[in-house]
Amino acid sequence: MEFFERFAIPHPSIAIYASMVAAGLTMIAVIAGLTYFKKWGYLWREWITTVDHKRIGIMYLISALLMLFRGGVDAIMMRAQLAVPENKLLDAQHYNEIFTTHGVVMILFMAMPFIIFFMNFVVPLQIGARDVAFPRLNALSFWLFFMGAMLFNISFMVGGSPDAGWTSYFPLADGESVGSHYYMIAIQIAGIGTLMTGINFITTILKMRAPGMTLMKMPMFTWASLITSVIIVFAFPVLTVALAMGTMDLLFGTQFFTLDNGGMAMLWANLFWVWGHPEVYILILPAFGIYSEIISTFSRRNLYGYKSMVGSMVLISLLSFVVWAHHFFTMGQGAFANSIFSITTMAIAVPTGVKIFNWLLTLWKGKIEFTTPMLYSTLFIPLFTLGGVTGVMLAMSAADYQYHNTMFLVAHFHNVIIPGVVFAMLAGLTFYWPKMFGFMLNEKIGKWTAWLLSIGFLLAFMPMYVTGLDGQARRMYTYSESTGFGPLNMVSFIGAAIMAVGFVLIVYNIYYSVRYASRDISADPWDARTLEWATHTPVPEYNFAITPEVASSEALWDVKKKDHVLFKGDYEKIHMPNNSGVPFIMSCIFFAWGFSLVFSLWIPAIITTIGIFVCMTLRSFEKDHGHYISVKEIEDTESELRGA
Amino acid sequence: MSELFPLKQVMGFVFSLVLTAVALGVYYFDMSFAVGMTVLLVTAFLQAGLQLVVFMHAGETEDKGAIYTNVYYGVIIALVTVFGTLLALVWDMG
Ligand code: HEM
Ligand SMILES: [Cu+2]
User: Rounded distance, CA A203 to CA A132, Å?
Assistant: First the structure.
């Protein structure tokens, strides 16, 4: 019995017990459903073992959407708690656990897989490749991310959720429960997956572009993905090291981030943000890439200022590494250090502004067509700019003493993240949906969603700027009536509820479109400009039957307007990688390894460590030469897809 | 004969052993902290560069440009991070 006590949650509530029951029932329903419909084999062959970048992308997408709802429920609970003063819906401990989970889930398990979904699905198609450079590594990346996310998500039901904020500052994180262990280890596992994704995409983009596609002829989303991957490769190792040090402090009694014996708690904050600030650019640059594609497609003209777009991204990637201390202006360093980081921070506004103007100038002489993706993109420009302006306010270190740790900051970062990243994800999802699934999402519901989300967003977050300046602190589970924050927080709650309706509409839109949307659409339903629209829908396993040859960044537009010929020559047999179950199995072992470490179960921890190395050794000695798709098979597939 | 003998690799191997021995010297000989650290830092970076160029063939393919750009980018970011951290947490900490 004593052994099992460690798995109990230290701070239970009815909501948590209800979630346990719900989680249990969902598991049973999924297992029963798969068995009843005899889908286990299908699931294993077509999805779990797949190395196809399109399918891996779709699995990232599903995970991201699930996590969006997990994080969204957390958000609604917090806003409900704060809606009226001295509310008793949640107590302080639960509020702490919820904002911590919300932050981690939204950033690492929602936004990250969402951008990686786009990179996976779009980049190989956009550069005319058959897959990524290392397909099996890609599968491992996904499964590690997935298992890390799952490990984090069970924390509130098994052993207790982390409660020290998504930044998990020491010494606060050095708590009694296993929450911080979950934080360190789950993020570590997912982070290793992300790091491998970065390496994979740098190689893919540098080595596998179609003939004729020089670096300066790459579509903008591919450029954004390249720069993002570079930032990943340089930023994530810092996180890896910091998490490893933190884990050792928590599990093995080292003293890196403690307050005595030469430890330095501030070093954690420092390392966290050395990774953390580049991380926000990892999220926003692909979003910018998506907006660039959408804005030029629906302005019916080429993107204005291609070179300055690329240049500003390169500059942003460098600057993103020299600003991190703006997250702790108030930690005690002097005016000199703060001034330096203030100035570097403000400098980032310049390349970002260049990009905003380029989009505006693209719209300027364009023939604008307001589809749902375009609606999101045009809503993005003013809303994001608002967040950018408050960002420059926060960058002034002297003034930051006023804003620091208040709702003003919370309003700012949601103001850049929601219109910047979330809108891009939804715009991109609507844009690429027909390429993935062969039918379009309903435009009318889509536009309703975009407007509801924007209005809800403004109502939810504008009041926080005001209460923040008035001194409402972040991460506080309640406030007294005499502060006068009550009415504005109620407005915030209404805004959050409207956003919730928006998110439910997305699900309804998917349901509605699955049932009613026409399946009779072309492979290029938006009249787009880049290579990913030049192949069939559904995209065949090998992407392009003949490797395309391109002459500009808008290869498909050249075909339409300049009689460019993309596909020259005859079919040849195509070499493709084989599926493999090892990435999945290895990631399951990683999950067990993480779980064992969280609860300091040393014997399973040692066994699983050995298991991980066994998997890697097997891979080293495995001979897997992939397989060929014969010319006959290509001809059959092609004529079938053309006929359809 | 000269084509068959990997002179560069053998020399590299000897040199990396020498670097290791010098670094080990810090432990065996009595020297001030500053001198010891300097020796360690210099030998460490020479060692890393040696491995990269001689044994990991950084400059031997058409991807030379991309590889070195990445390495320089990484070095710049590492230096900025180290010195920025020192600035914020040590030099300018009141
Ligand atoms: C859908 C609408 C959303 C609402 C209503 C919402 C609401 C909130 C609230 C109330 C807090 C806690 C404020 C406090 O007491 O400190 C919070 C924190 C946070 N949110 Fe959101 N949020 C939303 C979406 C997002 C998204 C999309 C992201 C990121 C992709 C995000 C990232 C964060 C982060 C990082 C924190 C800080 C957590 C911490 O303090 O450790 N949120 N959010
Ligand atoms: Cu930052």
Answer: 8
Which pLDDT score, from 0 to 100, does residue A1 have?
63
Answer yes or no: are the C-beta atoms of A401 and A329 closer than 8 Å.
yes
Q: Is the pLDDT confidence value at A33 over 70?
A: yes
- The answer to whether A182 and A133 have CB atoms below 8 angstroms apart is no
ipTM of this model? 0.86
Please calculate the CA angle B82-A170-A416 and round it to the nearest 5 degrees. Answer: 75
Read off the tokens for A30.
Answer: 């999924």
> CA A369, CA B48: separation in Å to the nearest integer?
55
Say which residue the tokens 């596609």 belong to.
Answer: A213
Residues near A487 by beta carbon (within 8 Å), at least 6 away in sequence: none
* Strands in A46-97 per DSSP E: none
Q: Are B13 and B29 in a shared domain?
A: yes
Q: Which CATH superfamily is domain A2-643 in?
A: Cytochrome c oxidase-like, subunit I domain (1.20.210.10)
What one-character DSSP code corresponds to residue A177?
A: S
Centre a 10 Å sphere on the Cβ of residue A443 and count the other Cβ atoms it contains.
16
Residues B74 and B32 in one domain: no
User: Mapping DSSP to helix (H, G, I), strand (E, B) and coil, where does residue A575 land?
Assistant: strand
- Contact A274/B at CB under 8 A: yes
In chain B, how many domains are there?
2
Q: Are residues B7 and B45 in the same domain?
A: yes
Give residue B9's pLDDT band: very low, low, confident or very high (50, 70, 90).
Answer: confident
- Do B19 and B44 lie in one domain? The reply is yes
CA distance A370 to A377: 10
Cα angle vertex A27, ends A612, A6, to 5°? 60
Alpha carbon of A618 to those of A23, A189, A610, A624: distances in Å?
Answer: 35, 21, 12, 11
Distance from C-alpha of A127 to C-alpha of A213, rounded to nearest angstrom? 8
User: Chain B neighbours among A 475-494 (CB < 8 Å)?
Assistant: none
**Which tens digit of pLDDT belongs to each residue from B13-67?**
999 999 999 999 999 988 899 999 999 999 999 999 999 988 888 888 888 888 8
Residue range(s) defining the domain that contains residue B89 = 61-94
Minimal C-alpha gap between B26 and chain A (Å): 23
Asked whether residue A644 carries a pLDDT value surpassing 60, the answer given is no
- Residue A628's H or E segment, with its range, is strand A627-629
Q: Are A426 and A509 in contact (CB under 8 A)?
A: no
**A532 secondary structure, DSSP code:** G
Q: How far is CA A160 from the centre of its chain?
A: 25
Q: Which atom of ligand 1 is nearest to the CA of A111?
A: 30
- The domain ranges of chain A are 2-643
Cα A208–A212–A213 angle (5° rounding)?
A: 55
B42 and B88 together in one domain: no
For residues B45 and B67, membership in a common domain is answered with: no
Nearest CA distance, A28 vs chain B (angstrom): 48
Copy the structure tokens of residue A565: 């010929």
Q: Pick A325's closest partner by Cβ from B66, B73, B84.
A: B84
Residue type, A322: V
